[in-house]
Write a structure and sequence with these properties.
The protein is of the alpha+beta class. The chain is 49% helix and 9% strand. The protein folds into 2 domains: 13-135, Muramoyl-pentapeptide Carboxypeptidase, domain 2; 154-254.
Length: 262
């Protein structure tokens, strides 16, 4: 089986998947598993800290040789390389980033412990758009695990804030007569009658509440966070929160017709 310049198996679409770069709507095809974790993490950082990424000049997997070679497969052919903003940073051009941007990129690359190599640092022809995996699978896994563990720690750190968001959204919404009416029997009765009531239903109820009549009284930032789903997905894993939601919903729907439900 052919391999790319960095030694990874190449020209095998079964090893590749399409991903959305976090923080963007840009899709990129990369090698599945640890490689994608590392390259996606860097691409997301680049988008946030250097330049916003565009679908039109962002790319990963493509079966081809290195430019100028007829025999050596590019690391793109194994899904272990990505090109970012190639229209602004063309192959062979030097100085397409400012000195400050270049310093920031090299500092960030230090986080990956040599696993990502930047084409701007090539000894020969420069390729400032290009970032590639430069280590074997064990090193890539170590860095990918570091990224995963950091993401997990960040989620746990954010839980107190998410809890406050949850209380503000959910408890405030249930006190609003119009919102209770609009949520109505269909959604809530279905939820209560479902023996397999899950966090997905909790999330859907909260997302719908967030969309109804500006639940947070103009606090669009919090509404957007809930609609995005990420905080809710974390919170609904807590059994106590699921139980609280069920109890509140039952209290509302169990009140006799015409009785106050506040």
């Amino acid at each position: 089986m052919p391999t790319s310049q960095n030694g990874y198996r190449a020209n095998d679409p079964s090893l590749i998947a399409s991903y959305t770069i976090p923080g963007t709507s840009v899709k990129i095809a990369l090698r599945k598993g640890d490689v994608s974790v590392v390259l996606l993490h860097f691409a997301a950082w680049f988008n946030k800290n250097i330049e916003p990424l565009r679908q039109s000049d962002t790319g990963g997997y493509v079966e081809r040789t290195i430019r100028g070679s007829s025999t050596t497969l590019s690391n793109h052919a194994s899904g272990t390389a990505e090109d970012l903003r190639w229209n602004d940073h063309p192959l062979g051009a030097v100085g397409t980033f400012t000195a400050a941007e270049k310093a920031k990129i090299n500092a960030q690359l230090g986080y990956y412990e040599g696993v990502i190599r930047w084409g701007a640092n090539y000894s020969g022809r420069k390729d400032e758009m290009h970032f590639e995996i430069n280590k074997g699978t064990a090193d890539v896994k170590r860095v990918a695990d570091k990224i995963r563990n950091a993401d997990k720690a960040k989620t746990e750190e954010d839980l107190p804030v998410l809890q406050a968001d949850y209380n503000k959204l959910f408890l405030g919404a249930l006190r609003d007569k119009t919102i209770r009416a609009e949520l109505g029997a269909a959604m809530l009765d279905a939820a209560i009658g479902d023996p397999d009531y899950t966090g997905r239903r909790v999330e859907q109820v909260l997302v719908d509440v967030a969309k109804l009549r500006g639940v947070l009284v103009g606090d669009t930032k919090d509404a957007a966070r809930v609609s995005a789903g990420a905080p809710v997905k974390a919170l609904v894993k807590l059994p106590a929160q699921v139980a609280e939601l069920q109890a509140a919903v039952k209290a509302i729907t169990a009140a006799p017709a015409g009785a106050p439900k506040a």
